[in-house]
Automatic annotation (TrEMBL):
UniProt xrefs under SUPFAM superfamilies: HAD-like
One MF annotation (Gene Ontology) recorded for this entry: phosphatase activity
Organism (species): Clonorchis sinensis
Gene3D superfamilies per UniProt: HAD superfamily/HAD-like
Name the record gives this protein: 4-nitrophenyl phosphatase
A GO term from the CC aspect: cytoplasm
Length: 98
């Protein structure tokens, strides 16, 4: 059993001392990666270089039944995520999505 189910979250939390309020779940799949992060209270970032594209993302944003699949933020590439994290670090902010 993997994402987005409870047992994998329990393993991550227990073995790596993960604090969901301070964790950014990054992925390219809305139904696993993003749902996993949202289900357990993490910030979520969807990167549009894999399974999810803009068309699917727009459908999910307007479907009330798929709220769990909506990312906190979206990036065109992993490089954009790194640039955002560097920007936030340089500004001294406490959280990249806050």
């Amino acid at each position: 059993m993997g994402k987005p189910h409870q047992p994998i979250f329990d393993v991550l939390r227990n073995q790596h001392n993960i604090d969901p309020d301070q964790t950014l779940m990054i992925g390219d799949r809305l139904d696993t990666d993003i749902a996993f992060g949202n289900r357990f209270g993490m910030y979520t970032a969807c990167v549009l270089t894999g399974v999810t594209d803009s068309e699917l993302l727009n459908k999910v944003k307007t479907d009330p039944g798929r709220i769990l699949h909506r990312p906190t933020c979206t990036f065109e590439s992993v490089q954009q995520i790194l640039e955002k994290l560097n920007e936030v670090e340089n500004q001294g902010a406490s959280h990249p999505m806050g």
